[in-house]
Amino acid sequence: MSVQTVCLGWHWQPYAYSREATDVNGNRVLEFPDWMVRLGRKAILEATNDPLAAANYTPDTALVNYYSDDSKMGMHQDRDEQSTQPVVSISIGDTCQFRFGNTLNRNKPYEDIALASGDLFVFGGPARLAYHGVTKILPGTAPAECGLASGRINITMRVTGLDG
């Protein structure tokens, strides 16, 4: 993993969530904003066309990853949450090659998908624990209006299932 990460709601470090960024600066993590809850619900509604699923989706954490031109993220599962509610992923900036695989291992079958600025990717249900990663960033592909001179920001919203 060669990205820089900021968390909202809960601080993630491998295999655990906490309210304090103990591995960074010890500060309490910023609250998860209401507008992101609304955005997550809208994404679920668009992806599923199920108003009940959207109304019941209340993400409480977001991992905000910045990818420079040469950043990558290896194949992994998002399985540190107690909840199996969908992951909502938002792309801003340069296009990336996103590899979306199977739930058993990091090997084939997988599909490489170009995620451009403004793209939204939702994975839930049987695909919630699919292995996925970023194999490359395509520098210079960001639209001028996205606000990034270079690189990519990815925001992944999740429901941790944790109290507190």
The CATH architecture designation is Sandwich
Number of domains: 1
How many helices does DSSP assign?
2
Strand order of the largest sheet: 1-4-11-6-9
What does the average pLDDT come to? 95
Walk me through this protein's architecture:
The chain has helices at 34-48, 51-55; strands spanning 4-8, 11-13, 16-18, 61-67, 73-76, 87-93, 95-100, 111-115, 120-123, 132-138, 152-158. With 164 residues, the chain is mainly beta. It has a single domain (4-158), classed as Jelly Rolls. The chain has a 5-stranded antiparallel beta sheet, covered by helices on one side. The longest helix is centred in the N-terminal third of the chain and has 15 residues, at 34-48. This is Alkylated DNA repair protein (DNA oxidative demethylase). One of its GO terms (molecular function) is broad specificity oxidative DNA demethylase activity.
Produce the secondary structure layout.
Layout (H helix, E strand, L loop, with lengths): L3 E5 L2 E3 L2 E3 L15 H15 L2 H5 L5 E7 L5 E4 L10 E7 L1 E6 L10 E5 L4 E4 L8 E7 L13 E7 L6
Antiparallel strand pairs: 1-4, 2-3, 4-11, 5-10, 6-9, 6-11, 7-8, 7-10
